[in-house]
Amino acid sequence: MRLVYQHYLKEKNVSFYANELAISENYLNRCTQMVLNKSVKKFIIEVSVLQSQILLKDMGKSIAEISHELNFEDPSYFSRVFKKINSISPVEYRKRIMNDFS
């Protein structure tokens, strides 16, 4: 988990974390599944999305800028992943934040 928190901005590939730990991807996934009840890939993405929720509070940054800052391939992929995890899009999330502070 510590490695993911340290490297999630640059590394979203499971192979990177397996190599850093000198174990196979399969073994890493089994361990992560047992401990966190989710795959390594899902954990990496969730950490990135959690960080994006913090960044979305900065109204000076566009969603595209935030997705690039978090090293997602493209803003539409970021939006799909964000919505899959949070059940709302980044735009809707940002609107809720604005309404909460109004």
| Number of separate helices | 7
Question: Which class do the helix and strand fractions yield?
Answer: mainly alpha
Helical residues, percent: over 70%
Overall 3D shape: elongated
Please render the helix and strand layout as text.
Blueprint lengths: L1 H6 L6 H8 L3 H12 L3 H16 L7 H7 L5 H12 L3 H11 L2
Structure description:
With 102 residues, the protein is mainly alpha-helical. 71% of the residues lie in helices and 0% in strands. The protein has helices spanning 2-7, 14-21, 25-36, 40-55, 63-69, 75-86, 90-100. The mean pLDDT is 93.
Key terms for this structure?
102 residues; single chain
Short summary:
By secondary structure, the chain is an all-alpha fold. Helix content is 71%, strand content 0%.
